[in-house]
UniProtKB/TrEMBL annotation, chain A:
SUPFAM superfamilies: ACP-like. The keyword Nucleotide-binding does not apply. Residues 13-93 form the Carrier domain. Gene3D superfamilies: ACP-like. It holds the Pfam family PP-binding. This is Acyl carrier protein. Coiled coil: none annotated. InterPro entries: ACP-like_sf, PP-bd_ACP, Ppantetheine_attach_site. Keywords: Phosphopantetheine, Phosphoprotein. The lineage of its organism: Bacteria, Pseudomonadati, Myxococcota, Polyangia, Polyangiales.
TrEMBL record, chain B:
Signal peptide: none annotated. Pfam families: GCV_T (PF01571). Gene3D superfamilies: Probable tRNA modification gtpase trme, domain 1. It comes from Polyangium fumosum. Keywords: Transferase. This is Aminomethyl transferase family protein. InterPro entries: GcvT/YgfZ/DmdA, GcvT/YgfZ_C, GCVT_N, TrmE/GcvT-like. Residues 3-226 form the GCVT N-terminal domain. One of its GO terms (molecular function) is transferase activity.
């Protein structure tokens, strides 16, 4: 595999692990991390988060992954699935923390 | 009306569709919970009036039906896509635990469905605010009709179970009042394309590929805390680790089901489903990729179609920034909408 692609996948997987841990430990999603599929919906009956959790999720994303939303309009599309959170962290997260 | 126009209406206003691809069953009796709990793959922790998406799995942990299960006091509605009504009833009756007192009957009525960012407003106009304001995954029943708030398009969605002798009158009322909403009629093909664009599971497409919830990314719809039909096989597959996973992608040129996917010269998967998205202006594709390559955000893969390599780019679903995310029943109306204030369907990366 091309080294650049390998690095991207490794980084994405590392953020995915962090998001899964955050969902279990901070948001109390009652699933084992490996049960949380990347495309699982966050709200409704997906992982069962609600509007109160949304605030905690944003706070946790900032404290754990250094994610700062560049504008509020990004919050809805970014908080649809586990993978959209990973996309958000890749684009607007703290890269040193993620890579470390 | 072309399918593209049906989809444009569904994505921007309201679309009315038949519901004859859905079977509605009523499960009753003192053993209804116990019987369903043994065949439905999710935990049945539902309050009266709530519904939940899940699956019926076969003994090999492959999806047999894509379901919503809804609790109505001590009874249940089961809305299922995939098998015929006869196949569905036979599946249940064969697998319900022996000795459990339960009855299974077809629901009395005909299903229609409404989808779109302003479907709630048309529902309010025709059926009243109790229907239009239903929360997601809840249902409301009157003496003779049941209104389910669900949908698999990413927009506001309602499945309407109407007494069969009244369905023509209700349909006429929806068409009449729907004119003010630029209501369109949507085909099942249009609904399926919208489901693909929004990352919803489709039992008629990828659901028939012999995959389990592990490869399909549907573990959120199943439980690992109870025994049910298919649970042993699912657990075994989980312990063996899935070797492939579905990933969404887009392509600028046509690709088709079965096309092989490559990274350089290495085959890494194939196309499960493909359809042109008139909203995105490109092909939307569901891939089954070998696990080490099954990630969003990669633009180095290619699909081999008609003898040539075509670039594809993997993405996180949903692939659309749906209008329904931004339309609020408390603040908006189709009549006074201002499209310029809504964000684009496709956000920049």
């Amino acid at each position: 595999m091309n080294p650049e692609l390998a690095r991207y996948i490794q980084r994405r997987e590392r953020i995915l692990d962090k998001v899964r841990t955050l969902l279990v430990e901070r948001l109390h999603v009652s699933r084992a991390p490996d049960e949380i599929d990347p495309d699982a919906p966050l709200f409704g009956t997906g992982l069962g988060l609600d509007s109160v959790d949304a605030v905690e999720l944003l706070v946790s994303m900032e404290s754990e992954l250094g994610v700062r939303l560049p504008h509020e309009g990004l919050s809805r599309p970014a908080m649809r699935t586990v993978n959209t959170l990973v996309d958000l962290a890749l684009a607007h997260g703290r890269t040193d923390d993620v890579d470390g | 009306m072309s399918m593209d126009d049906e989809i444009r209406a569904l994505r921007t206003s309201v679309a009315l569709a038949k519901g004859d691809h859905i079977t509605c069953l009523r499960i009753e009796g003192e053993g209804a919970y116990e019987a369903l709990d043994y065949v439905v793959a999710c935990d049945l922790f539902l309050q009266d009036g709530q519904m939940r998406p899940s699956l019926l799995l076969d003994e090999e942990a492959r999806p047999f039906a894509d379901i919503h299960v809804a609790r109505d006091d001590e009874s249940f509605f089961l809305l299922a896509e995939g098998p015929s009504p006869e196949e569905l009833v036979a599946f249940l009756e064969k697998r319900f635990p022996a000795g459990v007192v339960v009855t299974v009957e077809r629901c009395n009525g005909t299903l229609l469905s409404l989808h779109g960012p302003y479907a709630w407003e048309l529902c309010t106009t025709v059926f009243g605010p109790d229907v239009g304001s239903l929360p997601y995954l809840a249902f409301y029943r009157t003496d003779d009709a049941v209104f389910f708030r669900s949908g698999k398009t990413g927009e506001f969605g309602y499945d309407l179970l109407i007494p069969t002798d009244e369905v023509a009158t209700v349909r006429e009322a929806l068409l009449r009042e729907g004119a003010a909403f630029d209501l369109a009629l949507a085909s099942l093909s249009a609904l399926d394309q919208c489901a693909l664009e929004n990352g919803f599971f489709n039992i008629r497409r990828e659901g028939r590929a012999g995959l389990s919830p592990l490869e399909l990314g549907l573990q959120w719809r199943v439980s690992y805390r109870k025994d049910y039909v298919g649970s042993a096989a699912l657990q075994a597959r989980r312990e063996a680790n899935a070797t492939a996973r579905v990933v969404w992608a887009v392509a600028g040129a046509p690709v088709a089901e079965g096309d092989e996917v490559f990274l350089d010269d290495q085959r890494i998967g194939h196309v499960l489903v493909s359809g042109f998205s008139v909203i995105r202006g490109e092909w939307v594709v569901l891939l089954l990729l070998d696990r080490p390559y099954a990630y969003a955000g990669i633009d180095r893969y290619e699909a081999r179609h008609a003898g040539e390599r075509r670039p594809i780019r993997t993405l996180s679903a949903p692939l659309l920034n749906n209008r329904s995310l931004y339309v609020s029943p408390q603040r908006h109306s189709y009549r006074t909408r201002d499209e310029s204030k809504l964000p684009p369907f496709v956000l920049p990366l």
